[in-house]
Amino acid sequence: MTVYSDTYLAGGTWLVTGASSGIGRETAMLVAACGGRVIAAGRDAARIDEAVAALPGSGHLAVSFDLHDVDATADWLKALAVQHGPFSGVFHAAGVEAIRPVRLLRQQQVQDVMGASLFAALGIARAMAAKGAMLDGGALVFMSSVAGAAGQAGMAAYSAAKAGIDGMVRSLACEFAPRAIRVNAIAAGAVRTPMHERLARGATGAAMDAYEQQHLLGFGAAADVAHAAAFLLGPAGRWVTGTTMVVDGGYLCK
Ligand SMILES: NC(=O)c1ccc[n+]([C@@H]2O[C@H](COP(=O)([O-])OP(=O)(O)OC[C@H]3O[C@@H](n4cnc5c(N)ncnc54)[C@H](OP(=O)(O)O)[C@@H]3O)[C@@H](O)[C@H]2O)c1
Question: What are the Ketoreductase domain coordinates in residue numbering (predicted)?
Answer without folding.
Answer: 12-189
